[in-house]
Specification:
Length: 355
């Protein structure tokens, strides 16, 4: 059984924390990020149980009660809704073993909640990522004479992965290939191999495994002269699902900002948001969504993610073409048309009942 090293900001970056407040929370940050990371890794491997052996090296969480209180506070909603179950044992001095279990049927709300929790606790890292990003982008600008073609293409496929952390890139008259690592605000990183040569995947020089991040892996096939045909494929299905939820959270944030100026849409979305967490969609509704999806030429996967039935519906959508199209979709528009359709149906039902 491996005890991971500390995941806190101070133990993982060369830059000191800006405020003393956040370093008072090092053990807490370590504990929460390790739990998020442990569950994400288990989901990547299609498991429904995670075991985390976690050492508190800052002497801030000193006993099992403090550890448990911290976990209860942050993951409360998941325990209340029975999405997650836990078991905590003392393991060694200042080291605890935490077992977490869930059902595959709950993967949707689990992933969405973990992304939000980890975004909150990952926040101190973002200034560090910003710095790395501007260094790498300056270097890229200089080396590529300002040509951002491939970066812009990847950006379209991967909204939310804002920070360029590492890259290798070769471009000639005949072909181009290489790899990139991008980071998000939630501790989810992605390693993208572009035009893999002889089937070899790009490997980041920094080993992120066992560190403070969850690493997704994808390949991108890209032809400069025909970028419309580019395809992004994930090595593991569940990596793609995690990415879709990250995208949803990122787009919802942008959508919310947008909607502050568009009151009518906001009201509609608000009602939808209020309902979606409570009501599980019925089978017929999933079919309706699929129908709308077909109309919008996007595919069930993307819409299902918006509607909060993502995981299972997504699993069902095995058609690669559909999935490819789904990665390029405008969620805001889709969510809105979905709401409108569901509201019209509800109204029709109400009217029918009145007759
Ligand atoms: Zn630490």
């Amino acid at each position: 059984m491996n005890v991971s090293s500390c995941f806190c900001y101070n133990c993982n970056t060369d830059y000191p924390t800006l405020t003393s407040l956040s370093s008072n929370n090092s053990d807490k940050q370590n504990l929460i990020l390790q739990i998020c990371n442990g569950i994400f890794k288990a989901i990547q491997n299609e498991k429904t149980m995670a075991e985390i052996v976690c050492s508190m090296s800052h002497r801030q969480l000193r006993n099992i009660n403090e550890v448990e209180a911290c976990i209860n506070e942050e993951f409360r909603q998941l325990f209340i809704n029975n999405v997650l179950r836990k078991e905590i044992n003392s393991f060694l001095i200042s080291t605890w073993r935490i077992r977490l279990k869930w059902s595959e049927f709950n993967n949707d709300s689990l992933i969405r909640n973990l992304l939000l929790i980890s975004k909150k606790w990952y926040d101190p890292f973002t200034s560090y990522l910003q710095k790395m990003n501007s260094q790498k982008r300056n270097k890229w600008f200089y080396e590529q004479n300002g040509d951002e073609g491939i970066l812009n293409n990847l950006k379209e496929h991967l909204p939310g992965f804002k920070y360029l952390i590492e890259y290798t890139w070769r471009q000639s008259y005949y072909n181009c290939y290489g790899g990139f690592v991008f980071a998000s605000d939630s501790g989810i990183f992605i390693e993208v191999t572009v035009n893999a040569r002889n089937g070899r995947r790009f490997q980041a020089s920094e080993n992120f495994e066992g560190k403070y991040v969850t690493l997704l892996r994808a390949t991108y096939n890209y032809d400069e002269d025909d970028s419309e045909k580019a395809t992004l494929e994930f090595i593991h299905d569940n990596d793609e699902i995690i990415m879709q939820f990250l995208k949803e959270i990122y787009n919802n944030n942008s959508l919310q900002r947008y909607n502050n100026n568009n009151r009518i849409e906001t009201n509609s979305l608000q009602r939808y948001d209020n309902n979606r967490n409570v009501a599980l969609l019925r089978d017929e509704q999933i079919e309706q969504i699929a129908e709308i999806a077909a109309g919008a030429v996007v595919g069930i996967a993307a819409v299902a993610a918006v509607a909060g039935v993502g995981y299972l519906a997504y699993k069902a959508a095995t058609n690669k073409t559909v999935r490819r199209t789904a990665t390029a979709i405008n969620y805001g528009y889709l969510a809105y048309s979905l709401i409108q359709k569901l509201e019209k149906e509800n109204e029709r039902e109400r009217n029918d009942n009145d007759d």
